[in-house]
Amino acid sequence: MKELYIKHIASLMGLHAWQVENCVEMFADGDTIPFISRYRKEKTGGLDDASVAELKHYCELYDEMEKRKQTILKTISEAGALTDTLKEAIENCLESSTLEDMYLPYRPKRRTRATVAKELGLEPLALGMWELREQNPRKAAAKFVTDKVEDAERALSLARDIVAEKLSESAAIRESLRASMRTRRIVSRTARGAKDSAESSKYRNYLDYSFPLDKIPSHNLLAVLRGESEGILSISLDCDSDKYADKIYRQFLGRRPRPSRELEEQLRLSCLDSFDRLLESSIGSEVLAEAKRKADIESIKVFGDNLRQLLLSPPVGQKRTMAIDPGFRNGCKIVCLGSQGELLDHKVVFPHPPQNEKVKAITTLQALLDKYKIEAIALGNGTASRETSEFIKRLRLPQGCKIWTVSEDGASIYSASEAAREEFPDEDVTVRGAVSIGRRLMDPLSELVKIDPKNLGVGQYQHDVDQKLLRDKLNDTVESCVNSVGVNLNTASQYLLSYVAGIGPSLAAKIVSYRNSQGAFGDRRELLKVPRLGAKAYEQCAGFLRIRGGANPLDCSAVHPESYPIVEKMASDLGVNCSQLIGNKELIDKLSAEDYVTESKGLPTINDILRELRKPGLDPREEASEFAFDENVHSIEDLHEGMILPGIVTNITAFGAFVDIGLHENGLLHVSTLGRRGTEVSKVLRLHQSIMVKVLGVDLERGRISLAPAQELKHAS
Fold this sequence. Notes:
Helices cover 47% and strands 12% of the residues. The chain has 717 residues and is α/β, with parallel strands linked by helices. The chain has five domains: 3-106, RuvA domain 2-like (Arc Repressor Mutant, subunit A, Orthogonal Bundle), CATH 1.10.10; 113-302, Tex N-terminal region-like (Orthogonal Bundle); 321-442, Nucleotidyltransferase, domain 5, CATH 3.30.420; 484-614, Tex RuvX-like domain-like (DNA polymerase, domain 1); 636-709, CATH 2.40.50.140.
């Protein structure tokens, strides 16, 4: 990558150029984001995975820009218009909009009004006006009257078309307008024919809406753009044509002497035409697209943060679990899972109306609880969840068995997926969905990686944002979560393994196939026997894979195999073996990190090794905690203003958080209730956080509940 881009990326991210340069080299060498951030801290200056991912995004962005520059330079050169000055300007450009502005006058274009005017021979008159030489343009225009140009007025009109196009292709004018139009108000109104549309009620807040484009909240912009795409709203930028035409004229004239009144009139008409016909729509579309990109990035960041919290939700661990997918008419689907998540049994019971088979349901459930010695109950949070929760409390639960409410978002997607069909080819979708609910309680990360993150109910306008950016961000987030927790090589599913650094879907399938045919892996190096898993893939993945009870105790830690000799030397210096050193805080405290620094392994790596030796393979996730809804609230009609209720945060957006208070409808805790103006929701709340909320209002007609915190919220951890 050129030094120009390296320095610019460093400036954008507040880094040193050497940090960027080292990362660029590692990307080129095939190193992954988790590997770089975890095992190459000396080269990155300690950048975390989010920063490395952002840096990689910039590298890809400027790689594409460099390719675009080469295409532009070739096109202009072939047209015989490439000067040294233009070439240098293009090569040093760092903004895509500026690059395209410079290319615009030379870009092959369709037939335009200016093209027609040039074909009729009006370019000399237009250039005379452009260069302020024709102070009497009407008199000069008479010379261009022909059988195809009937009079001087027609000649002037054609010349103005040429001038208007030249103005629209001026990089300086375009950038000036772009800067100005970024601050204009975006206006949304009811689209023609949509006034009485049933869908318009969704956009009632935007039917007569106006907000400065550079200050509009991301969710508001995405909402009005969605309304426009659905034909409900008509949007525009509040621009005064006359004022912008005057702005263009003054910029065009610059410091040159003022022209004659007649020439000024022609030039001003050209400026007005250029803005109305060419620039307003072009620049307006650009600044709207630019604003949407920013809104997309903000929305995608919120989605990524939510997804991270969801994937790192506390697991209850390897417990024998009963999972219940509740329902009324179609009954409650029950599955019993072993401690490894294997399906042991499944039934359907009908404790609710219209069947009301309560006694039969109690008998069936009690028998399952006792037979499989159930240690935890996972209850889906969908229809009939509250009623089923109250019903289960009538049962005689095994000692220590607790009931947990689990989000059903995406369970139906999983149940019909290829992954579910492969796992349970002989079971129907209802059984698969219930299994997913149970496994989510046991280990959310291992189960949720099987589902497209967009279907997990934690996004904001996820179907409206740039899908490639969203996909890249979500993949990076899932990969980061999986690698930060670590993966059990001998029990992990193919889907979980595919997110381990350096593996991917193809190698994950080969690892599982090898494991099925050869048995459990005895040590990490056995991975090299997996077909097509070479030295590079091994380097990237080994540190994130765990082997419990293997030949080498370090294989169950986050210490990378390349650093095993360092640990062996530490143990040798203390007169013990590695097994005796691992987890022995007293021995580890006797070691000095500085004594083990080498050319390739600096203090950051040595300190990481010592931290890992103190608590090898520690799961960074918190422990799961219990929660109960208010037993007196069963429907939205039970709510009244001022009630204080327990709730669980189910989704976080830029405009607030949605809170489950045990009803079918989630309440909205608007950002304006969280404290001082400008507070970021994600700074004070986290996904699945248990909080006390106060009911501010209830809209029965629209099924909306307004909430506020019932206690002071501290910074979310």
